Structures are given as C-alpha cells and as structure tokens.
Amino acid sequence: MAATNQPMIQLKNVSKIYDNGTVGLKDINLNIDKGEFVVVVGLSGAGKSTLLRSINRLQDISKGDILIDGKSITSAKGKDLREIRRDIGMIFQSFNLVKRSSVLRNVLTGRVAYYPTWKTTFNLFTKEDKQKAYEALQRVDLADKVYTRA
Ligand SMILES: Nc1ncnc2c1ncn2[C@@H]1O[C@H](COP(=O)(O)OP(=O)(O)OP(=O)(O)O)[C@@H](O)[C@H]1O
Ligand SMILES: [Mg+2]
Q: How confident is the model at residue 96 (pLDDT cuts 50, 70, 90)?
C-alpha cells in the first residue's frame, strides 16, 4: 500500500543525456502530489517533452530515479512496468487518434492495458467498458458522435 504522504510522482536527481551528447534533463528533483495540477513551462528545447517521456518511460533516463506512487519506473520490467504505465494517462500533441475507427473505439483503446492481447485483437470490450466510454463521451458533450469515425 502506498503511504498517504508520499508524492505521486517523484524525480530524484534525474538526468538525461541523448546518444549524441545533448543534455535533455540536468539533475532534476521534483515532487508532484496527488491532486496537484502542474504546468511545465519553458523555451523550445528546454526539456519539457523529455521530462514527460521519461515519466512514463517512453525513453530511459541516464541518471537518477523516477518513482510513481513510490514504485521505481526506472528499474521496472515486464509486467510491473506495464502495471505502472497503465495508471499513467498521456495525451500526445498529435492526439494519436485512429481515424478509421469510431470515436467510441478510440476511447476504448484507453482500456487496452487492462485486457489480454487476444481480446483486444478481436475487439472484445466488455459491456461495462463500452458503457463507461459512452458516459465519458457524454461528459464532454460528444455522445452524438459515438459511432462517427474519429
Ligand atoms: N532524440 C533526441 N536525440 C537528441 N537530442 C534530442 C532528442 N530529443 C530531444 N533532444 C534535445 O533535447 C533537448 C530537449 O528537448 P525537448 O524536446 O525535451 O524540449 P521541449 O521543451 O519539449 O521543446 P518544445 O517546446 O520545442 O517541444 C533539446 O536540446 C533537443 O534538441
Ligand atoms: Mg516538446
């Protein structure tokens, strides 16, 4: 169980040096608590995207440690890494929508990490998940677009 006073996201002395020698992050120490709303502002090239990609380990860091709910994502492997990752939502600048799929199916993709691969291959989402996806779309006023291509 996670202690209640521990930060939700914790960066400890994190550095990222790209293969070509560019320093993406330099000794970053950062705590983000549950419920905190944080905005990262900086010039182009300051390292904002590097920071975000490091937090869900889309890329490895060179030094330091990153903890999510007290668990190191830096050293996690296989199933543990997948379990940490599925609790992290990420909206990409380019959205990464599947344009030939329906709006509902695009939303359901957010549940893929909770299913075995064979189920997602055959679109076997549960009634409950479809209902949840529909309600989420209702919340943002998109209920009439459920079956429209994204
Ligand atoms: N794959 C890479 N290989 C080498 N250097 C990289 C790579 N990705 C980013 N960089 C460099 O790392 C630094 C930080 O880049 P990053 O993309 O994180 O900045 P940013 O703050 O997101 O910028 P922007 O506001 O333009 O999105 C920059 O100097 C960039 O050129
Ligand atoms: Mg960026």
A: confident
User: What does the alpha-carbon distance between residue 110 and residue 89 come to, in Å, rounded to a whole number?
Assistant: 8
Q: Is 10 in the pocket of ligand 1 (CB under 6 A)?
A: no
In this structure, the answer to whether residues 115 and 72 fall within a common structural domain is: no
Ligand nearest to the CA of 92: 2
For residue 21, the model assigns a pLDDT of 97
Q: Is the pLDDT of residue 133 over 80?
A: yes
| C-alpha 95 – ligand 2 centre gap (Å) | 14
Residue 92 forms part of a structural domain = no
> For residue 26, what are its two tokens?
């330099």
| Closest C-alpha residue for ligand 1 atom 10 | 24
Q: Using CA atoms, how far apart are residues 84 and 9, in angstroms rounded to an integer?
A: 11
| Domain extent for 30 | 9-85
For the Cβ of 20 lying below 6 angstroms from any atom of ligand 1, the answer is: yes
Summarize pLDDT for 62-92 with one digit per residue, the tens.
999 999 999 999 999 999 999 999 889 887 7
Ligand nearest to the CA of 44: 1
Query: Tell me, what DSSP letter sits at residue 35?
Result: T
